[in-house]
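TEACHING EXERCISE
Course module: macromolecular assemblies
Task: Read the component lines below, then compare them to the predicted structure of the full complex.
Student: A.B.
Group: 4
Components provided:
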Amino acid sequence: MVVGAGPAGLAAARAAAEAGARVRLIDSAPSAGGQFFRGRPDVPPVHPKVEHLADSAVWHLESVHNGHTVRVRTGPADAPVRRGVTLHADALILATGAYDRALPFPGWDLPGVVTAGGAQAMAKGHGVAVGRRVIIAGTGPFLLPVATSLAGTGATVVEVLEANGPAGWLRAPRALLAGAGRLGELAGYAKALAAQRIPYRTRRTVIAAHGTGRVEAVTTAALDNGWRIRPGTERRIAVDAVCVGYGFTPQLELAVAAGCRLRDGFVEVDAAQATSTPGVFAAGELTGIGGAKLAAAEGTVAGTAAAASVEVPRAALRAVRQGRIFADGLAAAHPIQDGWRTWLTDDTLVCRCEEVTLAGLCDALDRHRALGVRTLKLTSRVGLGPCQGRVCGRNAAELAAGHTGGHYDPADTARRPIAAPVRLGELAEEETVEEMNGQA
Amino acid sequence: MKVTVDGVPTVARPGQTVAAALIERGQTSWRDTRIGGRPRGLFCGIGVCFDCLVVVNGVPDVRACQRVLADGDEIRTQRGAEL
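Instructor-supplied answer key:
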């Protein structure tokens, strides 16, 4: 059973099917491809022997003595009419991907402020621009394709701001060599930006959004190496949309539910993409942010290994090794620096769902001596809303650590036994149970 | 394909999500928060943040960025916590 039909999941399902396993591919979107292949004509087809469950949300995972049980709701997103099914498989491949990390700043909850991935999904998937005058800010190479996609939908991209310096790659010469192909792709985006006269500025970011009822302007500022604001460099710019993206956060809850060991916030895997839980494999952004090509190579390795019948192809193993070197370089060139914590004011929301401000968070830390993630959540309500800490978890953990000097493990915010929301009425329904014994 | 947004007839394309249709018609918010009454619309765009909740055919808490429109859908602004 493969969860997630992006580049990693598609490759894993194909490899497992070709190795002779019976494969189910479960994905919440109406069609396969994940975030990367959204709206692209080159999305790889689902292997004809793979059973693809589209529009299907996995909301619970349980490891049992002879395999793994997942509970799925199939149907229109969040509709009460979805059909429930419980599936069992003896091997499980998790390819649940990642989502943009957004750092909080005053006004980041105004409508018109969106994540870079959200803007990309609208542009690539629907040909819709999130605004007419858009500014893009954050860190990492993903900001570039978002800028070209937005320009392609007719929006004016006012500027692209990279919070880190331009020299980050010089610290990772090995990564430059390993990622020659990827760099060419990025150079292509940079050229497109230049051709459309979109300014690209480094060591600068959006530190505040302003507006009544929606974003109307932003303040940008230059940052020092630690991402503290350089006083006197603030500039106000009129925009009607802001796209922010500070790297990506892996979608961890199913891996956590399966008991997979994490390392540095990602799922730890061996050379065969096996996790610490027997029978559970992981591929793609879940194991480290490395892009679609690396994800697909990891998927091929995981799918073959999970089918447990043939040798893992050497080419895929080599592609994974090369891809990881490039991914490490990527991470080294685009770190998140602690100075972002100084962008917030007391009334800046940390948790958007429960509307917990920075002052509210600090109050809970001081008054209730919230010295762990669980206490922090229960006393401040941060991370208790519908997103279950997906957006604020890491930010809240880092703000808390900065405030008390204690240790707050961001992975603790990824414990979500209910992995996707289900309605109470759905829980009350009878479900069919299907076995996939002896199969992946 | 015809849908309504707060009672106003609107044309939508097959395959379009609720969020895409709302943004295309120039709307940036379609919910207000239950504590501060603040307006919210699209944020993550990929089903993670639950900011873009909207009422579809009388059912609240539907992620506008995930729900694909069906002909005749009635979309309505969500006010605070609706049960």
